[in-house]
Automatic annotation (TrEMBL):
The keyword Magnesium does not apply. Belongs to the short-chain dehydrogenases/reductases (SDR) family. Keywords: Oxidoreductase. InterPro entries: NAD(P)-bd_dom_sf, SDR_fam. It comes from Nocardioides dubius. It comes from the Bacteria. This is Short-chain dehydrogenase.
């Protein structure tokens, strides 16, 4: 039942660490598995967790980039291991999880950060069912497979925490993001339910609903070039906070306002979203790949 007061207790411990900086983070000595660690938010999170004394396992597909990040993590004095795997390949993920358990034991913290975003209006998507399948594969089925893989160990040791890097779109429901936001919403909902089943085992989940973050992921959308966006370091700090404090959700205020508006004034919200979205057309990249991508690549 002490889990009921987890977040207030974590806030007290945070205050203690401020007064006494030598007090270790709850991440110290714990095994933290971070996916999508070869760039962007995942890379910054690896450095932030390394500074707090976590033992880090990094996953992504690009082996050379993983090696680069692992080198930088090791230079911060942290233990680090890398596994190059495509998280949409179920058999490869199962094999990797078996290897991780054999070499590193139970994963204490899992950060489901690897992901793919697609911003394309439905108008350009009528023959692009693969957009919806691809986003589900990496943003939903991949994380679910990892969660199912680490849960038995977490439940047996009666401790574990999962942070899902989702998006404020889960609350805002932004037009042109149907494929992306639906896949992140699926993970958000799965984890909310999983957390209810694992409550008695002290295994918890945070859905971290991030706003725009300045990474490679948003460069294809011209409209975002000058839009306000969080730095990767600020996003990583939010992930670390979610790992340490274990809240159920973490959101930014404007997304909470959007969520309330969607609930209280749904048609007005539709009108505002439609108007706003019609002023920001599909990116050149979204239009070009809709027009030219060969069927074999779909
Ligand atoms: N940037 C934003 O504005 C924003 C906002 C809200 C939420 N997010 C979320 O934040 C997370 C990180 O994104 P980012 O902005 O940091 O972009 P990023 O730099 O493109 O990072 C994406 C990461 O996911 C990995 N990845 C992609 N597909 C994979 C696959 N099939 N198997 C294994 N790894 C895969 C990539 O590594 P490899 O290519 O090496 O595999 C990369 O490390 C994503 O889940 C994204 O949806 C981003």
């Amino acid at each position: 039942m002490s889990l009921l007061f987890q977040t207030p207790r974590a806030l007290v411990r945070r205050a203690q660490r401020l007064v006494q900086p030598s007090t270790p983070s709850p991440l110290a000595g714990r095994t933290v598995l971070i996916t999508g660690a070869s760039s962007g938010i995942g890379e910054a999170t690896a450095y932030a967790v390394a500074r707090l004394g976590g033992r880090i396992i990094l996953i992504a597909r690009r082996e050379d980039e993983l090696a680069r990040v692992a080198g930088a993590v090791a230079s911060l004095g942290a233990e680090v291991a890398t596994f190059a795997v495509d998280l949409t390949d179920g058999n490869a993920v199962d094999a990797t999880l078996a290897e991780i358990t054999a070499q590193h034991g139970t994963v204490d913290y899992l950060v489901n950060n690897a992901g793919r975003s697609i911003r394309r209006s439905l108008d350009l998507s009528y023959d692009r069912m693969h957009d919806f399948e691809r986003t589900m594969a990496i943003n939903y089925f991949g994380p679910v497979r990892l969660i199912l893989g680490v849960l038995p160990g977490m439940r047996a040791q009666r401790f574990g925490h999962v942070v899902n890097v989702v998006t404020w779109g889960v609350q805002m429901k932004a037009p042109k993001f149907a494929a992306y936001i639906a896949s992140k919403t699926a993970l958000d909902t799965f984890s909310r339910i999983a957390g209810r089943e694992t409550f008695g085992d002290n295994v918890t989940f945070t859905n971290l609903r991030l706003p725009l973050v300045r990474t490679g992921m948003i460069t294809a959308t011209e409209a975002y070039r000058n839009a306000p966006a969080m730095t990767v370091e600020a996003a990583a700090a939010k992930i670390v906070r979610a790992l340490e404090d274990r809240p159920i959700t973490s959101s930014v205020p404007v997304a909470v306002v959007g969520e309330i508006a969607n609930f209280a004034l749904p048609r007005l919200s539709d009108a505002v979203a439609w108007l706003g979205s019609s002023r920001v057309p599909d990116s050149r990249a979204a239009r070009a790949s809709a027009a030219t991508e060969p069927a074999s690549a779909r």
